[in-house]
Design a protein that fits this description.
This protein is an alpha/beta fold. The chain folds into 3 domains: about 80 residues, Winged helix-like DNA-binding domain superfamily/Winged helix DNA-binding domain (Arc Repressor Mutant, subunit A); about 100 residues, Periplasmic binding protein-like II (D-Maltodextrin-Binding Protein, domain 2), CATH 3.40.190; about 120 residues, 3-Layer(aba) Sandwich (D-Maltodextrin-Binding Protein, domain 2). Helices cover about 40% and strands about 25% of the residues. It contains 11 helices and 13 strands. Strand 8 and strand 9 form a beta hairpin. Helix 1 packs across helix 3. The chain is elongated. The chain starts with 7 loop residues before the first helix and ends with a helix.
Length: about 325
């Protein structure tokens, strides 16, 4: 097949398989049969002289050649779509699917009010939420498999754009009736009790001051180790971790039947306090503050739909307060 005669739709099939890593997923995305996707892939393999995707237990894995050409195909299709677009993004008429990765915190504090807001202003728009505990999240942003990521970040490379969504701070919580709810809270009293900590990757991967390096994007994976480090400055004050979990949802139940203490974001703590499940302690030190941000690939700057979605986040959060 002459390269100058390659059907543009073959590249759309390539992009769909790259996104879903499966023929069936690509067929659902494109609205065609799996047989049609397989036939199109065979034509593209012949035209480019490469297998492009190889079956594995994890799905259709791209070959080195496919990974090499994927960014240019994705950007080329985006330019074509921009050129033939009939007009600006219209929220009330759009049925676009936005793919967003978020921590448990982001899903509860940010995406819940955003979903409520979108139901009013863009009822046919769909949010697909993916976990941000995975170590390949930034690769999916690079590959176009994600549109947006919500989380706590340090340094980021030039290809990634960021914006502040909100600020939060740590809160130390215990069960109602815990001994620390009576009398002044001191470091010595805090460290007399075992700690329940939340590490959002669910791993023992080495972190630097609460951050790990994910393809050049420094992601914060915990906020409570600062408390542990403060205790380490005093040889007479030593903290002990009793339980480590990868999600905040487990904290109220575990605290409810023990004398453990935990550090959680204040926004999440307030939800459990309102339910009568936890008590927030007055701290004998200045709490750590974290910046919650949205990040996206720089090509998203040319995407009016994505830019509209990003602009809706602060509006949705204001409506939830």
């Amino acid at each position: 097949m002459a390269r100058k005669r390659i059907d543009l739709n073959l590249f759309r099939v390539f992009q769909a398989i790259m996104l879903h890593r499966s023929v069936s997923g690509a067929s659902r995305d494109l609205g065609v049969t799996p047989s049609a996707v397989s036939h199109a892939l065979a034509r593209l393999r012949e035209a480019l002289g490469d297998q492009l995707f190889v079956g594995s237990e994890a799905g259709m894995e791209p070959t080195p050649r496919a990974l090499e050409i994927a960014p240019r195909i994705r950007d080329g299709l985006a330019l074509v779509d921009d050129a033939i677009s009939s007009g600006p993004f219209v929220p009330t008429e759009s049925d676009r699917v936005f793919r967003v990765a978020a921590t448990e915190y982001g899903a509860v504090v940010i995406l819940a009010p955003l979903a409520q807001h979108l139901a009013r202003v863009a009822p046919d728009v769909e949010l697909r939420i993916f976990p941000y505990s995975r170590m390949d999240t930034i690769r999916h942003l690079d590959d176009g498999r994600l549109d947006l990521v919500l989380g706590w970040f340090g340094e980021i490379p030039d290809r990634i754009v960021r914006t502040l969504v909100c600020e939060d701070r740590e809160a130390v919580v215990v069960r109602p009736g815990h001994p620390l709810t009576e009398g002044a809270v001191t470091l010595e009293r805090l460290f007399a009790f075992p700690f329940l900590i939340v590490e959002m990757t669910g791993t023992e991967r080495q972190a630097v001051e609460g951050f790990i390096d994910d393809r050049g994007v420094w992601r914060r994976v915990w906020i409570d180790r600062l408390l542990m480090e403060m205790g380490g400055r005093d040889k007479d004050v030593v903290g002990r971790v009793a339980v480590s979990v990868p999600y905040y949802a487990a904290v109220p139940s575990m605290l409810g039947t023990t004398d453990m203490i935990a550090t959680v974001p204040l926004s999440l703590a307030r939800i459990s306090v309102a339910q009568g499940r936890m008590v927030i302690l007055d701290l004998p030190y200045e709490p750590l503050t974290v910046r919650v941000e949205a990040i996206w690939h720089q090509r998203g700057e040319r995407d009016p739909g994505l830019q509209w979605l990003i602009a809706q986040i602060p509006e949705a959060m204001r409506g939830a307060t």
